[in-house]
Amino acid sequence: MAKYELPNVWQWEDENSNRSGNRPTAGARFEQTLPVGEAPFQLYSLGTPNGIKVTIMLEELKALGVEDADYDVYLVHIGEGDQFGSDFVDINPNSKIPALVDQSQNPRVDIFESGSILLYLAEKFNKLIPADIHGRTETLNWLFWQIGSGPYVGGGFGHFFAYAPEPMKYPIDRFTMETKRQLDLLDQTLAKRPYVAGDTYTIADIAIWSWYGRLALGDLYEGSDKFLNIKEYSNLIEWSERIADRPAVKKGLEVEYLSIDEETD
Ligand SMILES: N[C@@H](CCC(=O)N[C@@H](CS)C(=O)NCC(=O)O)C(=O)O
């Protein structure tokens, strides 16, 4: 690889990128009207690790008998840049899935960031978050841990292991080290208790399973289970399999996304 000389001021070199390309600016790139259905919740998302957190949560709420957790779910094709359409950016100015609208409130409530969405739903229905201060705080500790730690796995390890144009030792060593440290932390934690935050299944399990459970089961990056020697994390694997068996988790993964296209300008 050619030696990189640091310029004094970084310049964006790809100014002709298409509508889905990375840009150093935020905001809507084009007008796009999103469909709105009848259900109380309108979810604009995709079946990625961050996206499945929300469909799993909504399915868990429905399995617990929460009728007001009905939702319509629409496919936001991030490879085609749908996250930069005007209606989506109105809901989530950060242009990333998942984005949820609670239209049972007047005015409607817009919710973005998967952790914020899980917390909103848990608090709204008093489910999947313990009421006592110790259980609630431990759940939030691990929920925030996932949101802060996950990008080292997805944007770091996963990017350089699976998507970078060629293998590069420095970033792969750096992010594999951190990913394995996180896996060891979860494995040690799950040796002591059945769920991440204690004795009960919570939104922390949903957030963490969607990344680390799927990684442990070999469902995120082809060949990574061998590369990371996942089999050494036996408590994590047992927990991952147990959560994968939950009917609501299966439903959350299989949900059919509606197209946003009919209403596109
Ligand atoms: N911290 C955010 C991350 C969301 C995120 O990174 N979403 C990705 C898909 S998993 C996305 O929309 N990427 C599109 C893009 O970066 O343009 C969350 O937890 O909701």
TrEMBL record:
<dbReference type="InterPro" id="IPR010987">
    <property type="entry name" value="Glutathione-S-Trfase_C-like"/>
</dbReference>
<dbReference type="InterPro" id="IPR036249">
    <property type="entry name" value="Thioredoxin-like_sf"/>
</dbReference>
<dbReference type="Pfam" id="PF02798">
    <property type="entry name" value="GST_N"/>
</dbReference>
<dbReference type="Pfam" id="PF13410">
    <property type="entry name" value="GST_C_2"/>
</dbReference>
<feature type="domain" description="GST C-terminal">
    <location>
        <begin position="132"/>
        <end position="265"/>
    </location>
</feature>
<protein>
    <submittedName>
        <fullName>Glutathione-dependent disulfide-bond oxidoreductase</fullName>
    </submittedName>
</protein>
<dbReference type="InterPro" id="IPR040079">
    <property type="entry name" value="Glutathione_S-Trfase"/>
</dbReference>
<feature type="domain" description="GST N-terminal">
    <location>
        <begin position="39"/>
        <end position="129"/>
    </location>
</feature>
<dbReference type="InterPro" id="IPR004045">
    <property type="entry name" value="Glutathione_S-Trfase_N"/>
</dbReference>
<dbReference type="InterPro" id="IPR036282">
    <property type="entry name" value="Glutathione-S-Trfase_C_sf"/>
</dbReference>
